[in-house]
Amino acid sequence: SVAMEQHQNWIEARKRLEAVVKTQPGNGEAQFWLGVSHQQIGGEPEKAIEAYRAAVKASYFDQYLAHWHLGEVFGSPGATRDVDVARDHLNKCLTLKPEHFQCLEEQAKIAISENQYDDAIKLLRTVETAIAKLPAAKKDPVIVRVRLQQGKIFRQQGKVREAEALFLKILKQEKNAEVMWNLGQLASENDSRAAKDWYQKAIRANDAYAPPYRDLAYIQKEDGNDCLAKRNFELFIAKTPNEKEKKPVEDDLSSLTCEK
């Protein structure tokens, strides 16, 4: 697959970059890309941190990028997570490159993970302001991403109208399966028929996106349509990359009786 090929390319790049920094430890550009290769391959965040820090120490010409990636690594779940250090690096990134809105997005992601939803909303709205003058081709995908995050926060806070308004605004820009699934989640509280409709629309928009298969199956199970539910549970299990989400669905699947 393309993903496996890219992974292998990063492994080969890392080998070459390790050879370079072994003889040229002060080569900031090589250290930076070594950090990127570690981050792309995954599994060794400590080595990514070491390389990015070496790039900063060597006065790499695009230091703001090293600070951005350090913010990503320290802000991610795991043994190296340190929210204060992550925010410090992201602030340094913005000091060096105020227009690098990706650092604001990363700060918002950290705020969400810390349940600091009001701070996250402020940061995401700042992103919208920061990208206002970008060409539409660059701006529109960011707008979708930012509004989706805001809508998900509002849904988490129980602000149904605000969430729905943002999700519908996104759909005016593009047919987005994740947005349709979120609208289904909102509808599921009171209207299973509307929820079912949104899940089906999400599947038509992107049949590789897993969540709507699961939630459509639960509605079908409630309606007594075990065979349809079985099929959609199986599709969810086949399509989701999240192993933790598979187990409860597999348990529900085993409880169904479907005789054709």
Write up this protein.
It is a single chain. With 260 residues, the protein is an all-alpha fold. Helices cover 76% and strands 0% of the residues. The chain has 14 helices and no strands. Helix 3 packs antiparallel against helix 4 and helix 11 runs antiparallel to helix 12. The radius of gyration is 22 Å and the shape is globular. It starts with a helix and ends in a 6-residue tail after the last helix. The relative contact order is 0.05.
Shape: globular
**What is the end-to-end distance?**
36 Å
Q: Could you tell me the number of beta strands?
A: 0
- Percent in helix: over 70%
Share of residues in strands: under 5%
Summarize the model shown.
The chain is an all-alpha fold and 260 residues long. The chain has helices spanning 2-23, 28-41, 45-57, 63-75, 83-96, 102-113, 117-130, 136-156, 160-171, 177-187, 192-205, 211-222, 226-239, 243-254. The longest helix is centred in the first third of the chain and has 22 residues, at 2-23.
SSE blueprint:
Blueprint: H1 2-23, H2 28-41, H3 45-57, H4 63-75, H5 83-96, H6 102-113, H7 117-130, H8 136-156, H9 160-171, H10 177-187, H11 192-205, H12 211-222, H13 226-239, H14 243-254
Notable characteristics:
single chain; about 260 residues; about 0% strand
